[in-house]
Structures are given as structure tokens and as C-alpha cells.
Design goal:
Blueprint (H helix, E strand, L loop, with lengths): L78 E6 L3 H18 L2 E6 L4 H10 L6 E4 L2 H9 L8 H10 L2 H5 L2 E2 L2 E2 L1 E8 L2 E5 H7 L7 H13 L5 E2 L5 H16 L1 H8 L8 H14 L8 H5 L4 H6 L12 E3 L4 H5 L10 E5 L10 E9 L4 H10 L2 H10 L17 H12 L5 E2 L1 H4 L2 H4 L5 H11 L4 H18 L2
Parallel strand pairs: 1-2, 1-3, 8-9, 11-12
Antiparallel strand pairs: 3-11, 4-5, 6-11, 7-9, 7-10
Helix pairs in contact: 1-15, 4-14, 8-9, 8-10, 8-19, 19-20
Length: 477
């Protein structure tokens, strides 16, 4: 949450967010999702969706000067509620997409601001007999829980056809439960990026690192220039899980990552010890984190970004780790993405650089012609292209023109996202039971916050993580 985007991880961070939920057990392939390594310069031509030459089934969208590519039914007099935890610019931009759906169909759509975790919010709405028609769910586990509780409805033929045309198999698979398609992954996130203040790097003579050792060298170079190397939004525990996941995926490899994601190996495993010890190389380094551990634990994600790009060439920190959605927060400063604010992929800790992905899927809770039409629209390049042009957004839809993204950095991220296919891993904590991977002040979030405060206690942190994980996975909560 998604992220100022959602409180997902924060008041404005949605994608990515206190947005974790339910128990999620699935095969390693189904746990895969596409995300992108920004540094890869790929000669990829963006594909535009083909338009239709005639109206079908009374549809209002067809080949037209506006470039509509998806056929939608007439829905005059119909009304819909769409729930998501998005706030700020993210919510505003999504409402622009919904307005286009209204224009094309005649339906009336109301955005419902949900609290995090959204699965709990939906439970209360359903118990009160007032579920929204469609909800944007930020993790595979939440989709599974919605299906298990018989809240979610399968996608119809039109939405399935749009998915098949516009999405890789991997992005389709993570929206499935029991072989049936329930989710349309409307929004993606690349959570393997480190943003940096270009002026700080220039003054320090620092270079973009490619390996973890290079990152430590770069951090020392920045520190020696008089600027604290890292800003960490530790008040939002999800940022710390993202740090861990990137180190762990690169160092332990995809197979171990899948096993730990499903709790098939314990958090006391030596691979977890190795990852935590590696993280301590930054978290435990005196004066490497703005405000120290205590300051970081009082810094929410949006502030961790903005304080990296304010203060001229003497900001509170030179670098901040997080996904492509950080651009929304950078936009709140005077810094310009691609000039003042630059980005590099999370460095390789092991043999390959990690690519950790997240996303938000549209799920139908009240099956109707209007709800199915909205899911179909969100699966189309038409909807995603509208939001792509507004910035701070990344789509896994391969038929969104790359030129729709508003700057070169975002275009590069989007281009490599599409080229990445199915070969990457979805956010580990988003796959975990909510009690472990998605609740502020509890489970993995709390355990890693405690580790940030005392990064010498690797064994104690492992023991606590395993205790909390065993309880959560055992109960499925």
C-alpha cells in the first residue's frame, strides 16, 4: 500500500501498508509475481491494446477517438461501492479511473475508504449486511481468506478474457484460489529499489552500488561526506519486513524464500540467521540511520522519504529504501524524480539481485453485471493507462503503453516489470497469516522493530519470530 500511499503501511501508503491478512498456502509458482529491476535497460516495445471496430452487446465503448479498447455494458441507473485503503493522491487518482467507468457505462460509483487491515473492515461491513461491491485487496492471503469465507465471487467470462489478453500467467495465478480466478491485479509494486539524493551522491563522489558490499562502501562514502546514509521508516513495521525479504531472497535464494513464506522451514533456520546478521551490518552501524534506531522507530514511511529529499544537499539522509510508490512521497518535496531523486535496484546480496513484488487485486464481493463490468474495466489497459499517466502507479498489465508513464524512471521500472514475466517473488509478509505478517505492533512487524533497536540479538529475534509465526500459521489467523 501501498505508501504518502497507504497506511499499509502508513497513512498514505496503500500498496504495499498494514494491509496484510489471512493464511496463504500455495505453490511456489502461484506465489510468484512480477516486479522489476530498474537498472536493466531493456529494448522492449510497449504494446498498445487493439481497439474494437464495433459495439458489442449494447456496449458503450468501442473503437473511438478516445482509444477505448474494452467493451462495457450500459449500466444507467446502477450503483456500485468500491472499497480500498488508499488515501491521498493514490485515492484521488483512482477516483479519476472510476469517473471514466461512470462516463462509459452510466453507472454511479462510490469510493469507500477502508481501514487497515481491509479484511477486518470488510468483515464488519459484511456482518452489517452492507458489503461493498468490489474491494481492492493488497495480498494473496486476503483473497484466499475472502474465498474461504465465501465473500468473494469468481470473475466472469468478460473479465477472464481481459486478463488473458493483458496479463502474464504469473499475475493471473496469484489471483486464483482453488483453480478459480477471483482477483484482478490492478496495481503492482516493485519493492526492490533504493532511492537516493543525487546531489548528496555527487558531493560525496558516491556511486550506485551493485552488490551488498558495494552498498556498504557507498554508505561509508556518504557518511564521510557529512550526510547520514540511510533514512528508515521504522514506525511502519512493513518497511522492515521489506528490508528482510530483499536480503533473504538474494542471499538464501528463491526455494528457501518460498519455504519460509509458507513456514515449511522455521525462522530459527541458519538462513534466517545469515540474513539478520547481514541486515545488522547497516541497522547496527552507529550513525548510519537518520535519528538512530530510536529516531527510525518514530519515523513513518512518508517522512522517511521526504526527509531524504528536503534540506538541499544536507538532508537528514542520503538514501531511502522502498518501492516505486515512493515517487508519490518524493512528489511532496521540490525534488524531481530522475534529476534530484534517482534510484538503483536493491543490490545483490547473494548471486543475484532480489526482485520482491507486491500488488492490489480487485475482488468482487457482490456478483452483479455492474461489478463484473468494473472488474473487466480494471483488467483492461484503458483503466491502467489513465492512472499510469497520473504518476505514482505501476501496472502489471502488459498492454499499457510505456509512454503513459510520466517520467523516464517510471518508464524504465514499468518496462522491466513487463519483461520480467513470472520469475519473481511476492512480498513474503503479504503471504503470511495476518497475525504474523500484517498487524501493527505484533508478529514480524514488532519483532523486526525490536531487532532494529537491538541488532546484536540475532538468536533472540529468531526465537521470537518463530514463536509468533508458529502461533499464527497454526491458527491460520
Amino acid at each position: 500500500m501501498h505508501r504518502a500511499l497507504r497506511t499499509h503501511k502508513s497513512p498514505n501508503h496503500s500498496t504495499h501498508r498494514s494491509r496484510r491478512a489471512a493464511h496463504h498456502r500455495r505453490s511456489p509458482r502461484a506465489a510468484q509475481a512480477a516486479a522489476a529491476a530498474v537498472a536493466v535497460a531493456l529494448a522492449l516495445t510497449a504494446c498498445g491494446g487493439g481497439s474494437k471496430d464495433k459495439k458489442e452487446n449494447g456496449g458503450t465503448s468501442s473503437a473511438s477517438a478516445s482509444g477505448d479498447t474494452v467493451t462495457l455494458p450500459k449500466l444507467d441507473g446502477e450503483s456500485l461501492e468500491v472499497a480500498a485503503v488508499w488515501t491521498g493522491e493514490e485515492q484521488k487518482n483512482f477516483k479519476t479511473v472510476l469517473a471514466e467507468f461512470e462516463k462509459r457505462t452510466g453507472a454511479k460509483v462510490t469510493f469507500v475508504a477502508a481501514q487497515d487491515p481491509i479484511i477486518n473492515f470488510l468483515g464488519s461491513k459484511i456482518a452489517g449486511g452492507q458489503p461493498p461491491d468490489v474491494a481492492l485487496l493488497p495480498q494473496p492471503g486476503a483473497i484466499k481468506q475472502a474465498v474461504d469465507k465465501k465473500w468473494a465471487k469468481p470473475l466472469g467470462a468478460e473479465a477472464l478474457a481481459e486478463l488473458a489478453k493483458n496479463y502474464s500467467q504469473g499475475w493471473q495465478d496469484i489471483g486464483k484460489v482453488g483453480g478459480k480466478q477471483y482477483g484482478v491485479y490492478y496495481k503492482a509494486a516493485n519493492k526492490s529499489l533504493i532511492w537516493y539524493n543525487a546531489k548528496v551522491f555527487e558531493n560525496a563522489g558516491a556511486k550506485e552500488p551493485q552488490t551488498w558490499q558495494d552498498l556498504l562502501t557507498t554508505a561509508q562514502t556518504v557518511y564521510d561526506s557529512g550526510v547520514t546514509p540511510f533514512s528508515v521508516g521504522g514506525a511502519d513495521g512493513w518497511t522492515l519486513t521489506d528490508w528482510f525479504e530483499n536480503v533473504y531472497l538474494s542471499q538464501a535464494g528463491p526455494e528457501k524464500y518460498d519455504q519460509l513464506s509458507q513456514h515449511k522451514i522455521k525462522w530459527t533456520d541458519p538462513s534466517v540467521k545469515q540474513a539478520l546478521t547481514t541486515l545488522a551490518g547497516i541497522w547496527g552501524k552507529k550513525n548510519y540511520i537518520a535519528g538512530g534506531a530510536n529516531g527510525a522507530l518514530q519515523t513513518e514511511f512518508p517522512a522517511s522519504v521526504t526527509q531524504t529529499f528536503t534540506g538541499g544537499d544536507q538532508p537528514k539522509a542520503g538514501m531511502v529504501f522502498e518501492g516505486d510508490f515512493a515517487q508519490v512521497n518524493i512528489g511532496e518535496t521540490k525534488a524531481k524524480v530522475g534529476t534530484d531523486a534517482k534510484v538503483f535496484p536493491f543490490p545483490a546480496v547473494g548471486s543475484a539481485a532480489p526482485v520482491v513484488s507486491g500488488g492490489d487485486a480487485a475482488v468482487i464481493l457482490k456478483d452483479s453485471k455492474a461489478a463484473q463490468a468494473l472488474a473487466t474495466f480494471l483488467a483492461s489497459p484503458d483503466a491502467a493507462t489513465i492512472q499510469a499517466k497520473l504518476g505514482g502507479y505501476l501496472s502489471p498489465n502488459k498492454n499499457v503503453p510505456n509512454s503513459a508513464y510520466p517520467n523516464a524512471v517510471q518508464q524504465k521500472i514499468a518496462k522491466s516489470l513487463i519483461a520480467s514475466g513470472d520469475d519473481f517473488r511476492f512480498d513474503m509478509s503479504d503471504q503470511a497469516p495476518q497475525a504474523f505478517g500484517g498487524t501493527p505492533g505484533k508478529g514480524e512487524w514488532k519483532d523486526l522493530q525490536d531487532f532494529l533497536k537491538n541488532p546484536t540479538d540475532v538468536a533472540g529475534t529468531q526465537a521470537t519470530l518463530e514463536k509468533d509465526a508458529a502461533a499464527a500459521y497454526g491458527s491460520g489467523s
